[in-house]
């Protein structure tokens, strides 16, 4: 019983800690203006144009930290504060999303692989727990195995997301430095924002892997009992 309490405390607290870190870093550096005096939309546009991506649009999207790159429409979408604001945090987030656009243009292998996994991961995530619950409560190891296989697709998606996000952040820092969008003091602060954001992906992947391993252990236990 103690094991389960500790386990579930870990998988709940780790993502919560990661979310607190990113919100704290973003809140802190969204209050510090970038010396270049450009808002997030202008930062994104400058990096895109410098990389020959004039066809990629930059649009505002509602919400907080709802920033993303849409590969279907070739559009960088920035949340309102980041789109109009000229903070260090906004510049870092905008540059990160443009990093994904550059990945897309260069046909970055991990990004391409992640895109191919999307329908499989969505299908597996939606159905996996039905089989898992049936397998556990009805003591049907075969049903549990099906659930594990379906869940594994979603876990793989989470793991593949890590190099995609780390690479986008690395590209963001390189682009901002080469284009003079940050001074030396701002570089460290922008990196803190991107590192905190990356932690959320690490936490999500770690929790997904742990949960998959737990189910595999349950399955092997059921096999031994049979």
From TrEMBL:
Signal peptide: none annotated. The keyword Iron does not apply. The chain crosses the membrane at residues 6-22, 117-138, 144-166, 198-219. Keywords: Membrane, Transmembrane, Transmembrane helix. InterPro entries: Zn_peptidase_2. It comes from the Bacteria. The keyword Ribonucleoprotein does not apply. Pfam families: Zn_peptidase_2. This is Zinc metallopeptidase. The lineage of its organism: Bacteria, Bacillati, Bacillota, Bacilli, Bacillales. The gene is yugP.
């Amino acid at each position: 019983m103690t094991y389960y309490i500790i386990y579930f405390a870990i998988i709940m607290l780790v993502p919560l800690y990661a979310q607190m870190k990113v919100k704290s870093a973003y809140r802190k550096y969204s209050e510090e203006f970038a010396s270049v005096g450009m808002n997030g939309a202008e930062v994104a546009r400058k990096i895109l144009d410098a990389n020959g991506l004039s066809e990629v649009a930059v649009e505002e999207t509602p919400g907080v930290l709802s920033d993303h790159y849409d590969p279907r429409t070739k559009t960088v979408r920035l949340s309102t504060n980041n789109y109009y604001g000229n903070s260090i945090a906004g510049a870092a987030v905008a540059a990160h999303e443009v990093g994904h656009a550059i990945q897309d243009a260069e046909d970055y292998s991990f990004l391409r692989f992640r895109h191919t996994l999307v329908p499989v991961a969505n299908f597996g995530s939606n159905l996996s727990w039905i089989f898992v619950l049936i397998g556990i409560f009805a003591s049907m190891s075969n049903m549990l195995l099906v659930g594990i296989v379906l869940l594994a697709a979603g876990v793989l998606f989470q793991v593949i997301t890590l190099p995609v996000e780390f690479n986008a952040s690395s590209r963001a820092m390189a682009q901002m430095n080469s284009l003079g969008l940050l001074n030396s003091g701002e570089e460290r602060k922008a990196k803190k924002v991107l590192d905190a954001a990356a932690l959320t992906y690490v936490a999500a992947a770690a929790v997904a892997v742990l949960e998959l391993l737990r189910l595999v252990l349950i399955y092997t236990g059921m096999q031994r009992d049979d």
